[in-house]
Structure formats: structure tokens, C-alpha cells
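Pilot study result, target chain (226 residues):
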Amino acid sequence: MINLKINGISVQAEAGTTLLEAARFYGLEIPTLCHLEGLSPYGACRLCVVEIGEESRSRLASSCTYPAEEGLKVRTASERVIKARKMILELLLASCPQSKVIQDLASKYGIRRQRFRQEHEDCILCGLCVRMCKEQMSAQAIGFHGRGNKRGISTPFDLKSEVCRLCGGCIHVCPACQLRCTYNQPEEAICGGCANISPPCLEKEKFHDMMCYMDPCVACEIKNEK
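Predicted structure:
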């Protein structure tokens, strides 16, 4: 077993376990859009970033691809981590402003508008559909093509695939396909009407090294009960 610390808590993990798996095993929620149990880790969306190492030499790493290491110190909700996630969510909203999944995450992190021009690309290149088709459906009917800003997903040569069984697995796992009605103006891009209420302490009580990482927040539930 590997011994490490997550949010100051001493935990153990089996060899080969990722930081995301270790954190979730102990009930510590880390958001992600490109990770799905049963599929190989990809590390595309970067929402699962955590801060690892000592404060003076710490760095951000994607928890879904980073393996648990002996003596490693991990923070899943430090001020630096939260700031990075908010920036990533704003960029994702620019690509897919009508995604219900992305909007709910943005609302949870207190984002009410995004500063970037909306592209309406309807794809965040998370690779879930490609991995689902290959690893779970054994079809490989779709895949990545191109590089940089020309990167996309399609069938080979953009022709109708002969191996596609029209199972719908790619649509089922796609976070961009799960749409919600919303405004199309940047200043009104996030509805948040049907999202869960975010913990009020996320912004009000900053601890610099570690912000609230409990989901749901115990303190907030106690306040609501009173």
C-alpha cells in the first residue's frame, strides 16, 4: 500500500491507483468531464487538476492520470486549484455554452458569465466518445483527426462508417450533447436555475492553502437545518 496525504488527511492507496481514484475512494469530490469509470484515463479536460508537493515547489497536475506516490502531499481544493478550474470552465463555456453538464459545474463554482467569445463548437475534445466506441463497443467507428485548432472527431475520411452499430454510446457519454435552454449572450451565458446551490463558504472563507472541498458541505447542511 502507498501512504500519502490528501487535504492533510493521511490515506492509503493501492499501487497503480490514480490520485482521482484515491480521492474519490475517501469521498473527496474532484470534478472531471473526460473521465469515466471503465474507460482509460485521458487527461483532456484538465478540470480534475490538483495541487501536489510542498507549497513553495507545488505544481498542478491532472489527478485522473497522475499515479499515487509514497509520501505525496495533495490538495484538491486549494485557492490555486479553484482559480485554475474556474478559468477552464470559462473556456469550456466558450466552446459549449449550452451544455447542461458544463453549466452546472460553472454555476457550482460561482461563475455567472464567461469572458471569452462563444464559439458554439459543440465539442470539447474530451475523447469520451472515441474511447467508448473503441474500448466498450469494440467498434472504432470514430476517432480524432487533425491537430491544433483543426483537431476534431469524425469517422475515417468523413464517410459513413460500416462498423458503426448506431448504439448511441458516444452520445450517451458526451457532455456537450446534454443540452439545456439558455441565453446566447456572454453576459447571460449561464442559467444556473436548476443547478444545486453552491456552498456559500467557497468564496467567503478562503484559507489560501485549502478551500472547502466537501461535497455536500457539512457546514452548509448544518446551517440549513437551523
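One observation from the pilot: The chain has two domains: 2-118+180-211, 128-173. A full batch analysis is planned for the follow-on phase.
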